[in-house]
């Protein structure tokens, strides 16, 4: 497979060029390096029609056969992991090691979804009557993946959707379309025609997809603001939806933590993927007894992290993915300076090609600062001291979001007790983001609803169907 040129849409079992293209920017250089097809409304109509045409045959294919094909797709991706990783680094910016981890994550998520059995619940099986509930596929799924983890977050949707018998129209972000287009090309050689269609495009394509009358379910990962628009659009035809949205995740560092041992763990929890993670620790509340020690240890560790073009050996952090997000973070930095906030680390962004922003740590800003109350989605994190655990919990929960949270504790039982009081869908003690394809993942409050991963995530792509029968008409 040629990973370097000739990117095409996958529609109905064929690779199709679009009438228009758009440039894809390498965020490490700020320059275009490829052209992606810009799908038209007609292309979308054709993709949906192909998916609807394929649905009956795919849904009636035995579950074991569908699972085998999804597993074969995972195997094919794994065999091409290195070129997938290089392409992902070029369009997303993350270092090669992280890109490879994401590609292998896609493989693991697809294989995990294929390993599940779809449950059948038998309510009654007596001499007189039989009653069961099965889970049947919904139809055509419109899947929308973001730019921070384009392949992995596509896999969150593709694995369960395909395994349970749905057909899919997948739309990647216009900032990171290329690796997903290549995924569609691979799938095209394995899956029946129309089962998986992949369309790249600009800002119009998403609304066209979510409002399309031929789409039965929308699975979306992205910002809360966009998620609300997706929800409103889907409501017109009562589409089922799964929304994994934004977060402003708190970390609470308890008084008995070793600051030096904590520093690398806290750094990667906050700054991994240059902070472009929905589950990143975006507000770090540190007990006053060890605040200075934690701050200083974190600054020391962060100062030694290697930042640069992800294609180069040894890089640990890459650039911000796109200019829009880069400029948003730059405005946040300038506003923090205008408010005379104390920068414990960073704040001066060097002039260079690409969208690079070194890690920034803000020292104890006020609670109403934007850096605290809004999701940054970048390498800028506030450290905030507290004295009372009840106050720390109150502040941690004082957010419209409820995606994730982390407790760092010397006494794990005390940390576990504190974790019970956090209002979030995913709370961890002494670890950060240990995501697994077999563990349910969901958000509270305005971080979305529905479930991804695990058996619960698999069943999000099905509808319960209850059937019963009497053994005899004479009863």
UniProtKB/TrEMBL annotation:
InterPro entries: Ald_DH/histidinol_DH, Ald_DH_C, Ald_DH_CS_CYS, Ald_DH_CS_GLU, Ald_DH_N, Aldehyde_DH_dom, LUC3-like
CDD domains found in the cross-reference section: ALDH_AldA-AAD23400 (cd07106)
Keywords linked to the UniProt accession: Oxidoreductase
Domain of life: Bacteria
KW Oxidoreductase (keyword) present: yes
Catalytic residue positions: 244
GO MF term (any one): oxidoreductase activity, acting on the aldehyde or oxo group of donors, NAD or NADP as acceptor
All copies of domain Aldehyde dehydrogenase, residue ranges: 18-466
Family: Belongs to the aldehyde dehydrogenase family.
Name this protein carries in UniProt: Aldehyde dehydrogenase family protein
């Amino acid at each position: 497979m040629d990973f370097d040129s000739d990117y095409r849409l996958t529609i109905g079992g064929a690779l199709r060029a679009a009438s228009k293209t758009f440039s894809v920017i390498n965020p490490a250089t700020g320059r275009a390096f490829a052209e992606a097809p810009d799908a038209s409304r007609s292309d979308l109509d054709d993709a949906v029609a192909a998916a609807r045409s394929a649905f009956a045959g795919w849904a009636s294919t035995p579950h074991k056969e569908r699972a085998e094909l999804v597993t074969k797709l995972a195997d094919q991706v794994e065999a091409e992991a290195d070129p997938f990783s290089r392409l992902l680094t070029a369009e997303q910016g993350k270092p090669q090691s992280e890109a490879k981890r994401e590609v292998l994550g896609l493989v693991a998520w697809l294989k995990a979804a294929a390993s599940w059995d779809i449950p059948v619940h038998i309510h009654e099986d007596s001499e007189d009557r039989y009653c069961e509930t099965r889970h049947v596929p919904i139809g055509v799924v419109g899947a929308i993946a973001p730019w921070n983890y384009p392949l992995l977050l596509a896999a969150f949707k593709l694995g369960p959707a395909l395994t349970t018998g749905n057909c899919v129209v997948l739309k990647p972000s216009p900032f990171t379309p290329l690796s997903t287009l290549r995924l569609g090309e691979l799938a095209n050689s394995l899956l029946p025609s129309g089962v998986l269609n992949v369309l790249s495009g600009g800002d119009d394509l998403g609304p066209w997809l979510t409002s399309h009358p031929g789409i039965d379910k929308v699975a979306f990962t992205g910002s809360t603001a966009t998620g609300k628009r997706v929800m409103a659009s889907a409501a017109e035809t009562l589409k089922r939806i799964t929304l994994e949205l934004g977060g402003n995740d708190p970390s609470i560092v308890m008084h008995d933590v070793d600051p030096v041992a904590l520093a690398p763990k806290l750094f990667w929890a906050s700054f991994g993927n240059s902070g472009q993670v929905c589950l990143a620790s975006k507000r770090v509340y540190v007990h006053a007894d060890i605040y200075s020690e934690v701050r200083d240890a974190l600054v020391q560790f962060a100062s030694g992290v290697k930042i640069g073009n992800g294609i180069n050996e040894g890089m640990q952090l890459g650039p911000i993915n796109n200019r829009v997000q880069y400029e948003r973070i730059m405005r946040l930095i300038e506003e923090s300076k205008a408010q005379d906030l104390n920068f414990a680390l960073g704040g001066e962004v060097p002039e260079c090609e690409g969208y690079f922003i070194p890690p920034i740590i803000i020292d104890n800003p006020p609670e109403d600062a934007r850096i605290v109350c809004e999701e940054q989605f970048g390498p800028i994190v506030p450290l905030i001291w507290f004295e009372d655990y009840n106050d720390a919990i109150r502040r941690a929960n004082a957010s419209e979001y409820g995606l994730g949270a982390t407790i760092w504790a010397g006494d794990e039982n005390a940390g576990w007790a504190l974790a019970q009081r956090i209002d979030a869908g995913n709370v961890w003690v002494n670890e950060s983001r240990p995501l697994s394809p077999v563990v349910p993942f969901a958000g509270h409050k305005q971080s979305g609803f529905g479930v991804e991963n695990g058996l619960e995530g698999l069943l999000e792509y099905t509808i319960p169907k209850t059937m019963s029968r009497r053994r005899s008409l004479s009863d």
